[in-house]
Write a structure and sequence with these properties.
The chain is of the alpha/beta class and 233 residues long. It has two domains: 109 residues, 3-Layer(aba) Sandwich (D-Maltodextrin-Binding Protein, domain 2); 109 residues, D-Maltodextrin-Binding Protein, domain 2. The chain contains nine helices and nine strands. Strands 1, 2, 3, 4, 5, 6, 7, 8 and 9 form a nine-stranded mixed β-sheet that branches. Helix 1 links the parallel strand 1 and strand 2. The radius of gyration is 19 Å and the shape is elongated.
């Protein structure tokens, strides 16, 4: 496989694990691997629009859409891991114990702003605010940004008091980059949102054996341990 080049299109929540496994695969095989990250809705649009990739990493609903278009090699599609959502605050915000939904609700009601994104986690966050009867109450303080990373950048770039809702794995990525945020707590179990991710090689890959090998690497038992360390279990 030496001298080849593969391209991964991936959802952003699994960025740390995918990046590391791609780099490990590159070192082990001599195959160059580039990775492009997007929100799940944007990834769906990019693939539907004809953007080329050798391996796709996305939530099952997106993978189903891509599979219906005949763009995946079915027997390479496999489970990669799950991401959970968390509550993000400024690094200098006081510690708060989040015991249950009532505590979570009070935290949001006291926030100077509530931030989420337009990706899968943001869609869930919007529905959750509706479910809890907070959407109208917090309307003037709700900020919607494009990506998970932008949630953390907004929280870290404003005075303590802003609360963000995002994938825990994405929070960890931005903390690693020095963003002034911390994970206050996961969402309480009774309102937690779990997003699964899968990987598969594409039928349009010009290097299908190598693409199959890369998809296997992303979903292997060794990969599970790497993803677990990044908040994906």
């Amino acid at each position: 496989m030496s001298g080849m080049e593969l391209r991964i299109l991936s959802a952003g929540a699994v960025k740390r694990g995918v990046s590391r496994i791609a780099a490990d695969f590159e070192r082990a095989t001599g195959t160059r691997v580039s990775v492009q990250f997007s929100t799940a809705p944007e990834l769906r649009k990019r693939v539907a629009g004809g953007e080329a990739a050798d391996v796709i990493v996305a939530p099952p609903a997106v993978m189903d859409d891509i599979a219906r278009e005949g763009k995946l090699i079915a027997d390479t599609r496999a489970f990669l891991g799950r991401s959970r959502m968390g509550i993000v605050v400024h690094a200098e915000a006081p510690s708060t114990e989040v015991r249950d939904t009532a505590t979570f609700t009070r935290i949001l009601e006291g926030a100077t702003a509530v931030v989420y994104n337009r990706a899968s986690s943001g869609v869930y966050a919007a529905k959750l605010l509706e479910k809890l009867g907070l959407a109208e109450k917090l309307k003037s303080r709700t900020v919607v940004v494009d990506t998970g990373g932008a949630v953390m950048e907004y929280v870290g770039g404003h005075a303590p008091g802003v609360v963000g809702l995002a994938q825990i794995s994405e929070v960890m990525v931005l903390i690693d980059k020095g963003c002034a945020v911390r994970l206050a707590a996961p969402l309480p179990d009774e309102i937690q949102n779990v997003t699964s991710y899968e990987a598969a090689a594409t039928s349009g890959s010009a290097a299908q054996d190598a693409a199959r090998a890369l998809a296997r690497a992303l979903t292997s038992s060794e990969a599970k341990a790497i993803f677990a360390a990044t908040g994906i279990s």
